[in-house]
Structure formats: C-alpha cells, structure tokens
Amino acid sequence: MEKKLHTFLNSNLLKKYLVGDTSLEETKEVEHFISNYPEAEEAFEKLQDNLEIIAKAGAVDIPNYILDDILESLDETNDTKVIQLVQSRKTSWLSIAASAAAILFATTSFMLYQKNMQLNNENNVVVEEIYDLRSDIETNNSKLDELSRELLKLNNPDAKKYVINGNERAKNLKTVAYINPIEKTSMIDVITLPQLPEEQHYEIWAEMQDKMVNLGILDESDRKLKQIPYMEDALALSIKIKSKDSTTENDTAVAEISLKDEN
Fold this sequence. Notes:
The chain is of the alpha+beta class. It has a domain at 160-258: Immunoglobulin-like (Sandwich), CATH 2.60.40. 51% of the residues lie in helices and 21% in strands. It has helices at residues 2-10, 13-18, 24-36, 38-56, 64-75, 81-155, and strands spanning 160-165, 174-180, 185-192, 200-207, 212-218, 225-228, 236-243, 253-258. It has a four-stranded antiparallel beta sheet with strand order 1-2-3-6, covered by helices on one side. Strands 5-4-7-8 form a four-stranded antiparallel beta sheet, with no helix packed on it. Strand 1 (160-165) and strand 2 (174-180) form a beta hairpin. Helix 3 crosses helix 4 (38-56) and helix 5 runs antiparallel to helix 6 (81-155). The longest helix is centred in the middle third of the chain and has 75 residues, at 81-155.
C-alpha cells in the first residue's frame, strides 16, 4: 500500500485535480487517497496553499459573500465536505487571480495609451518647429538672394555712385544713389536723415529739362537699398521736406547733386 501511495504522490494527479483537469475515474482516485492517507491530504493542501499564495500576489482580499456561498454549497450537497471545500476555494482563487490579471492588463493598456498620446503630442510639436525652421531658412535664403542681387548691381562697373549730403537746413542728412544707365536702374541708400515733425517727411525728386519729377518718400526707419524710378536724361537729384497733407511743391531743397556732368 505504501508503494501505491508513493506512486500516487509522484504522479501529476494532485496538480490536475487542483486545476479541475481530471477525469471522473481520476477524480475518484484522488479523493480516495486524500480521504484515507494523511500524506496525500497534506500534499494536496500544500499545493492548494501555493496556489493561494500565487493568487494573493495580484489579488484583493476574498469578499465575505464568497465564504457564504461556500458554506451554503456545503449544506446543499451530500458529497464529502473536505472535497467540496477544496473545490470551492480552488475556483474562487482562480477567479480572483484572473480578475487581478485583467485589472493589471487594463491599467497597463491605459498607461501605454496615455504615453502614446504624449509622444504623439511631442512629435507634433517637433514637426511644427521643423516646419517653422524651414520657413525661416527659406525666408533668410530669399533675403540673401535679394541682397546678393543688390550687391551685384552696386558692384556693376556700369553703375554710378552719387553721395548726396544735406545743406545747412539738414546738415546730418546723407544718402547714396546708384544709377545704372545701361540697365536703366536707380537705387537709393538712406544713411542718415534728421528727424522731422510728425506732419512732415522727406521726398526725393529728379530734375528734368523742363520739370521736376517726384521719385518717392525717404524714411530713415527703412534703412536699406530702395529701388526708385529711373529717369532718362535727369539733370540732378534733390531731397525736399514736404508736408504730408500738402499738394503744393516746395522749391527749397535740403540736399542736391548734379547728374549732368556724369551723364
């Protein structure tokens, strides 16, 4: 008999019975050994305790209603009480372990979803910054191209340079005009312009043989090369102070340079 007990304990029947994987004949055999041999009962309880420890590692405390269900089940059956208690406890702990695993999976999934959303937002910010950077680079390249074209015009051997200095009425006034009679282009570079009252501004004029032609307004806040109309056969360039609301010409120039000797 000891040999049968030893063979039984070395078999896998207890583990299969614990997880409900035994046939009817195997179930009867296991219950027979548990009921009649303390060694078998002790081995089964040890397996049961191990399962409970594993379940408790990720589960909450057993609710009271589960224990009530177990006791009620014992009252309604004529089967061996020890076996029924073991089976009920086994099922309860497996359910709790499964529930704990489901909760852990749901929590992990939610955390991963939040992390993914955060990464997506950060990625969108990076994409926008790259787009802005590319836009800035394109703008700067455009400005560099424009400046390069202007420098080419200034360095053109056909371009003539005229420095226009102010008279007694505007001693600090200084501008430079670049005129290319071959390409028929004119540019003005504002160096300094004395400050005027708010209702006045500077205008540049071209003196022709029989008239004066307004070439535009000069503003110190726009200190860069500025394209002005090219006037064929212009005799001189002059800068005048004009009232913003006046339509009459002011014949008094604050700066003037002759072009007839250069043309």
